[in-house]
Amino acid sequence: xxxxxxxxxxxxxxxxxxxxxxxxxxxxxxxxxxxxxxxxxxxxxxxxxxxxxxxxxxxxxxxxxxxxxxxxxxxxxxxxxxxxxxxxxxxxxxxxxxxxxxxxxxxxxxxxxxxxxxxxxxxxxxxxxxxxxxxxxxxxxxxxxxxxxxxxxxxxxxxxxxxxxxxxxxxxxxxxxxxxxxxxxxxxxxxxxxxxxxxxxxxxxxxxxxxxxxxxxxxxxxxxxxxxxxxxxxxxxxxxxxxxxxxxxxxxxxxxxxxxxxxxxxxxxxxxxxxxxxxxxxxxxxxxxxxxxxxxxxxxxxxxxxxxxxxxxxxxxxxxxxxxxxxxxxxxxxxxxxxxxxxxxxxxxxxxxxxxxxxxxxxxxxxxxxxxxxxxxxxxxxxxxxxxxxxxxxxxxxxxxxxxxxxxxxxxxxxxxxxxxxxxxxxxxxxxxxxxxxxxxxxxxxxxxxxxx
Amino acid sequence: xxxxxxxxxxxxxxxxxxxxxxxxxxxxxxxxxxxxxxxxxxxxxxxxxxxxxxxxxxxxxxxxxxxxxxxxxxxxxxxxxxxxxxxxxxxxxxxxxxxxxxxxxxxxxxxxxxxxxxxxxxxxxxxxxxxxxxxxxxxxxxxxxxxxxxxxxxxxxxxxxxxxxxxxxxxxxxxxxxxxxxxxxxxxxxxxxxxxxxxxxxxxxxxxxxxxxxxxxxxxxxxxxxxxxxxxxxxxxxxxxxxxxxxxxxxxxxxxxxxxxxxxxxxxxxxxxxxxxxxxxxxxxxxxxxxxxxxxxxxxxxxxxxxxxxxxxxxxxxxxxxxxxxxxxxxxxxxxxxxxxxxxxxxxxxxxxxxxxxxxxxxxxxxxxxxxxxxxxxxxxxxxxxxxxxxxxxxxxxxxxxxxxxxxxxxxxxxxxxxxxxxxxxxxxxxxxxxxxxxxxxxxxxxxxxxxx
Lengths: 453, 453
What we know:
homodimer, nine-stranded mixed β-sheet, five-stranded mixed β-sheet, 15 helices, 19 strands, nucleotide-binding (chains A, B), ligase (chains A, B)
């Protein structure tokens, strides 16, 4: 074949990049597990009719076909499979399918790829990795999980500060506040209002005002009130008072508004204690998906706000329901590919080497390869990653082999059973006698590390 | 939606099953990294024309379509994407695409899903996880990698004996032996002979003899000679003598045969030293894929031979070539889903609990949830996985919540700042005073463990 070229929207990393991504995934997984979330995976495909329950996403779904299907045959939607475009819809299906075997409230994390056939852009891919946490209850789910989950994500992302990930800001809002306010000022097509407000960052306030009038049935005064609400943000409880004042000014009284403000206030208070300075109430956060019913979340990397949200989610009351039972949930999803691609493309992080090996065991001649293999096995049995030189080339060439990969140590096997082995730190040039049964590298050299660039 | 049902061929595990799979993947990854393999991932899709370079697999490929594609439009093979059906073809493409950025010989592992549209059977899925290791060289690749790689896999699978995975037997052969022998006895359509021999286990010797005559142009005598070769197996070097004798008997002299026997002998000798009793030369191992050019490998679980191979591969000289440069390689692939499904369906393994949490922190009333959260944070900061009770129910109910999940400890926060906390081992009922800043569970209770059933 000719030299292949990359496919737009399907990112692949070189080994160093994959080390970064794997480290990010390891840190996320550890944080999730420390918080008691159990990992699951779901299949990559769902029946197309399930994926299309949300009309808005229909254009983004990749549909699976069979190579031998008759050309021109009418597509059979019921039997057709599509690749999942997120992990929330498959998780809701998994909960319904396995409800009899799960203990509720069920805390799970899920780290998998998802696919969307949309036009690739910076940080927006056709294939991407997501890392989700959700808690679902059977029938009911207490509000305190809406406080807990964004703080778990803040902790997980905070644990990546060490490697050069910028600080994050978690933006929170509550659908009940928005809906209560809209209804309180006399707007009834809440979904239309939310869809318009969701475009604020993209098209600006004046255009959104126009949309509110044209598509949500708002008067100019009502549209301006919605925009005033969306303009409110802050990281302490004054934000709640601010909304209350605005509501009173506009004569907007609604019990949903009160309930939402109480919830939002509780989240702000808890966040101020547990993750000071990270969580900001931002009343313009709407989230496009229409299944959210309480808290909604978005997360930006400070200094990289233009990248968009790297961790979003919210509370959903009716996503998983089989008629007889309903499983309300709350969850957030980290856009791992978006985050990692930014770390790599902006050179924010680097790795101490490109391969796992801490040691290259040299080979003095091919007939003695077995002795080098034995040294490697002895080191590995004590948890030290090792590879053996590919050929019995001159030692200078073997050292260059290690150097090109960033392997810090080269091991020379003694010329006979009596002669001691030696190990050379090829960075300093220091060479010392060593025994494969006891020698250990510094902790900082044992495995490749991901560090700020 | 109605309660959904599973899709045949797309396995999903309950949380306990996923703990088993994740443990298997963690052990494989660690072994691969100790041997200096670096992890990469490739995209799930490849251009269809690349996937169809091997005609045999065409019927198994899932093709991606766009929902809005015109019904009846002629499929465009060049621009069409399909889901990869293994990790070797994508890896070969990755090597060609990134050759300028890789250091050769390049050692990589790759753990990902693959998809095949074939009829599901026991241990044969439409979506499945593979764990591959390969080494590729630029231009050349020394034979010793053909010895090393199956031994790495034997070590990786051996590291799973602790959790109840049966011992494995690695069956090896060498294409050069087979090809040299066939040519030596006057058969020239080597691929046809291999395809026939590959069916031996399925259809038996007599039917294969018929195939050899009908499709590989063999005489009855030649067909019997091929079957005699295929019947040879053994775990020491006598197997080599056995093949030589057979070749002499049939007047089959060929330099490829000699080269192949020398290689196979070296592998048997090294394996006897490094993994005694695990590797068996089995001259009937053919492997269906036509890109193998040297060693070929299959691996069976002892006592579960009917499951088929759980780890296969071989040496390939020309899979990755862009015309100017060729990258010969050798690799093996573990069928993780096949292995894990057997472990689960036969009840060979179990887990000490179904969630990560070692501790459930009880909540005495909702106003005090913050104090329970603080205890949980203190424990987590020392690496102990913890969750907080979902509600301030009666303590008996909170203990049952832990018990249902197998969480061994329940933590009771002191009634006020002066009263000491207490922690209860709910298995023994023992309850002691404890400080969240110092208390630690036994190592065996810290994380859920996967153990023999």
